[in-house]
Amino acid sequence: QVQLVESGGGLVQAGGSLRLSCAASGRTFSRYAMGWFRQAPGKEREFVAAISTNGGSTYDADSGKGRFTISRDPAKNTVYLQMHSLKPEDTAVYHCAAATLIARLAHDYVYWGQGTQVTVSS
To answer: What are the backbone dihedrals phi and psi of residue 64, each rounded to the nearest 5 degrees, phi first?
Structure first.
């Protein structure tokens, strides 16, 4: 069992930056690939980024390329999503999730956090 807790969301003006964190419980963090997804009101959940178990591979959605960077710190059992040049369309609840292999599809992820709200004002 892995428990995931996100933090770092908030209200930011367009063009600003935020760094989201996802802290994982347990000693099995290094066994899981990690991903970030987001869901805006009235929209389907959307893949944002993913990172492999050892951090050697990352996947990025086109929507965040050049602006979002995923990383992980095994010493802290934490995965991060650094977001720059934020746009109003980035407004959503951001969830982190754990999977056995790096993936883009939500159904490949086994554990999910509750999410953190990101609101970007124009």
So the answer is: -115, 0
DSSP string of 38-73? EE-TTS--EEEEEE-TTSS-EEE-GGGTTTEEEEEE
| Average pLDDT of the chain, as a whole number | 96
Alpha-carbon 89 to chain mean position = 16
In 3D, which of 88, 97, 91, 86 has the Cα closest to residue 37? 97
Distance, CA of 66 to CA of 6 (rounded, Å): 22
- Residue-wise pLDDT for 71-118, tens only, equals 999 999 999 999 999 999 999 999 999 999 999 999 999 999 999 999
Angle at 26 between CA 8 and CA 40, to 5 degrees: 35
Residues 45, 28: Cα–Cα separation, whole Å: 26
Instruction: Measure CA 41 to chain center.
Output: 17
Q: How sure is the predictor about 26, in pLDDT bands with cuts at 50, 70 and 90?
A: confident
How far is CA 95 from each of CA 16, 103, 122, rounded to the nearest angstrom? 20, 15, 23
